[in-house]
Design a protein that fits this description.
With about 500 residues, the chain is mostly helical. The protein contains 19 helices and 4 strands. It has one domain: Amino acid/polyamine transporter I (Up-down Bundle), CATH 1.20.1740. The strands form 2 sheets. The chain has a two-stranded antiparallel ribbon with strand order 1-2. The protein is globular and about 60 Å long.
Length: about 500
Amino acid sequence: MNAITEFVASVNDVYWYAVIALLVVAGLYFSATTLIVQVRMFPEMLRTIVEKPSDIEPDKKGISAFRAFTISAASRVGTGNIAGVAIAITVGGPGAVFWMWLIAILGGATAFIESTLGQLYKVKGKDSYIGGPAYYIRDGLGWKPLAVAFAVIITVTYGFVFNAVQANSISESVRNQFGLEGMGSSLVIGLVLAAVTGAVIFGGVRRLSAVTEILVPVMAAAYVVVALIVVAINITEVPEMISLIVGHALGLREIAGAAIGAAIMQGMRRGLFSNEAGMGSVPNAAATASVSHPVKQGLVQALGVYFDTLVVCSATAFIILLADPEFGGDREGISLTQDSLASQVGDWGVPFLTVVIFFLAFSSILGNSYYGEANINFLRDSPRSINAFRGLVLLAVVGGALGSVDLVWGLADLFMGVMATINLIAIIPLGGLAVALLRHYLQQKAKGHNPVFHRDDLPQAKNVSAWDGSDPMTHQHVADETRDVESKA
């Protein structure tokens, strides 16, 4: 097992330089071509997230923009925000936080592009729209073999590897809370978690989105509030903490032997795992929404990057660094965050965080499972295949609860690097379509309309199967009436 762990780590240490280069190049390119859409259209992001969906069929409501956001947030907000940030700080030092922030700001533009493309190339499924990179690679680029490869990779990555990561963190937090040791306790935790997971994922995307719509905002808000309490308790230490983060990130200060290279590598790896910008996962959730224009989900999912990294990840970093600003050394995960919180607010911090990580990681398992299902449908539209996948997800959950931290996280890094590489290679040539859609959106906004889209508006986009005018939301008079009702409410 140690040999496998070391091999995976050695591959990641080399391969991730290429992944980071791709992420930065894509982020800079899309920031330039969209005129920094992730910053200048922040108010519009807040407005579009509350738009109501239309009926995709008589008496069947579509998935709302907010529900699609919570499906993606369910996958984003979880272990990466709490255990992942702790690992980044212990291995890369405080400077890793700075690079996490930077990749989020750049990633906002990439998230906008990929989610807009996910909406453009969505197709109508049984319960909702479905789509994602496999669809825009196949239909937009005509690269079917690469589309199939991506669908397989994301199914394995999210359905099995990332769900094992989430289960591993739940198991670690529960064992740390109750002082449990041995494989027996981990097995019991894994079996209980698998049973609860099965009760939701076998109910389909509507049951899943109904659960995430409640769990994600409540748990994330509770966690951020407690982090703000920690900041308030240590308010005089905050300027020094910020100086430490920036100074270490730029090589001006060294902490516990964690060099600037380690800070960059860990910050960007953990940032991508957490906010998923450019990885190709979020477009699967973005495609489910019934909205009047593809750009609306692009904006909503760009907002999700900020929420995940600049808010929730920062909360974890502040809790840890305000407890001990000299961190950087032995690799630690969720237990470090638990112990740091307890040192600030008292013993109740450990059980509180155990509850938070359970529900956030559990919601991540649900969101991850949906991504796998969406791509199983792409590969083979078969209920039997979906149920087989769900069964394997439950096995991955049990296995993750039993696995070692280093191996599970190493595999997660490797698989998400492969996913990001394929997705970025696809969205760079397709990005011009998303930029054209943004211009189309802004032209309608300038006329005072609530923007709508028809596939005839973008003739250069090949093989678009949705957006044919059959969705009532895409009719201009309906969209304007919806906007008027919302503005009066």
